[in-house]
Amino acid sequence: MIIGLTGKICAGKDTFASLLPEDRFAVIDVDALGHEALAENKDNVAEAFGADVIRSDGTVDRKKLGAIVFSDKAKLEALNSITHPWMKEKALSLAHEAERAGKIAVINAALLESMGFVRSCDRVILVTAGYGVREKRAAERSALSSEEFRKRSEAQKDIGISLFSSGKPVITIINDADINSLSRQVSFLCDTI
């Protein structure tokens, strides 16, 4: 079984994923694969966005790149065209590997829909939280300013919109409270799968 896990910035999907029992679930973190995709495709990234997005040690400066792509939709689409195919292929390979090992694969991806993962999933979990809660978490977790958070949130405005018409079962998790509330929801979900 493959489960898609998605949610907007700071909704808590990573925390949700961390609460899943490792003996039953294999979480594939597509955001982490994005870091690998940048490393694997850094020459294409430099060509598209300029050599100054590459640090002196040869790694992509994700903060500089983020400032560029999250303020311009066309540039974000250009970056996605470079990294998404590699990320999708790797994530699905890892998911099938987990299934062969007898585990439930969980593809944890904010862009689950736009990357085309939904059709490969047996069901989808959408983690939600209010804008103010997410903004506060972003400030605490990543020191994002209100403006930076707004830009990233705006870039993710379509997350969750097509899930309910996908034909896949969708489970919505509301993560506006504390970790104990989220943990109870995870436990209930694990008992029903």
Question: What can you tell me about this protein's structure?
Answer:
- The chain has one domain (2-192): P-loop containing nucleotide triphosphate hydrolases (Rossmann fold, 3-Layer(aba) Sandwich).
- By secondary structure, the protein is of the alpha/beta class.
- α3 packs antiparallel against α5 (73-100).
- The longest helix is centred in the middle third of the chain and has 28 residues, at 73-100.
- The protein has helices at 13-18, 30-40, 42-49, 62-69, 73-100, 131-142, 146-155, 179-192; strands spanning 2-7, 25-29, 104-108, 123-128, 170-174.
- The mean pLDDT is 92.
- The radius of gyration is 17 Å and the shape is globular.
- It has a 5-stranded parallel β-sheet.
- It is built from 8 helices and 5 strands, in the order βαβααααββααβα.
Kindly summarize this structure in a few lines:
By secondary structure, the chain is an alpha/beta fold. It has a single domain, classed as Rossmann fold. Strands 2-3-1-4-5 form a 5-stranded parallel beta sheet.
**Cα end-to-end separation:** 10 Å
Strand content: 5-15%
Name the overall outline. globular
What's the helix count? 8
Neighbour order of strands in the largest sheet: 2-3-1-4-5
The helix-strand sequence is EHEHHHHEEHHEH
List keywords for this structure.
globular; alpha/beta; Rossmann fold; 14% strand; five-stranded parallel β-sheet; 193 residues
